[in-house]
Amino acid sequence: MEASLLSNSLFWVLGSVAIIAASVAVLAPNPMYSGLSLMLIFFVLAAIYIWMKQEYFGAMQLLIYVGAIMVLFIFMIMLLNTRTDFEEINLNWRWGTAFLLSIGLMSVLIPAVVNFKGSLPVLGNYTENNIELIGASELFAEALWEKSILIVELMSILLLVGVLGAVVLTKKNYTDQI
Amino acid sequence: MLIINNLLLLSVILFTIGFLGLLTRRNAIVAFMSVEIMLNAGNLLIVSFASYHRSLDGVMIAFFMIVIAAVEAVVGLSIILMLHRHKAGIYINNFNTLGS
With contacts defined as CB-CB under 8 Å, which chain B residues touch A109? Predict the structure, then answer.
């Protein structure tokens, strides 16, 4: 019981840090502060995944989001932004409309998730018993390489297309050289 | 374990904050970051449901969504780089004159 109390309070701390970091990422005038807060959100979400006993997925979140995507974002901020690019928050009609739309979205979604009372039966084999017996990595590998091997191959093609698209988009004057 | 409504509530709040940033910010990179926050909120929702169902299928979906987010970041940042080259500024308002 004490362990569960400890882990519940851990979730509350992580959740509040995530919400505060998201607010800073959205509202900070300096894009670099936004990027670093976004990195904090990814760290906290990885911690929440590990707290949910999805250790492998948390590691993937850390490696791909923090290690690849956020480094790319911060590199682009440093490449493109000058120091005069700050964007102040002023209360004009654009911010007012956006706040009203966000409050409307929240007032629709929050009652839906707070009143959710659906049953959550055990549907897969990722139970505590199987994790003890077989191992979490083995279960994950079975789901990745046996059940969804076709999607993995399609994802490799998608990554190749993304690389080619980035090269073609950013190459200078490539029509002259063809 | 905690009841699932708290996780869903965190996911919804993160999604709404990302939505607010996407609507308000004019800096293209920050708007793009707001899209990433929204994607992560969706991922959190899927993974929490899969985790409470003790199933790995939803985790697989979230895993592939991370790959799609990586590809999307690469292509989107290339488009922002093109915008910077053409217009000398990365504001979203500049996208309405890209054709001319």
Answer: 12, 15-16
Considering the domain architecture, whether residues A137 and A77 belong to the same structural domain is answered as no
DSSP 8-state code for residue B27: B
| Tokens standing for residue B38 | 């929204």
* Disruptive mutation site among A75, A80, A125 for chain B (greatest number of B CBs within 10 Å): A80
Beta-carbon separation of A45 and B43 below 8 A: yes
Q: How many Å lie between the alpha carbon of A60 and the closest alpha carbon of chain B? A: 8
Enclosing domain of residue A7: 1-83
**Residue B52 and residue A135 in contact, taking contact as beta carbons nearer than 8 Å:** no
Residue A113 lies in a domain: no
ipTM score of the complex?
0.91
Residue A173 included in any domain = yes
In a domain, A29, yes or no: yes
Write down the pTM of the prediction: 0.90
CA A74 to CA A117: how far, in whole Å?
Answer: 41
Q: How many domains does the structure of chain A reveal? A: 2
Determine the residue type at A150: L
pLDDT digits (tens, 9 = 90+) for A117-173: 888 888 888 888 888 899 888 998 998 999 899 999 999 999 999 999 999 888 876
CATH class of B27-97: mainly alpha
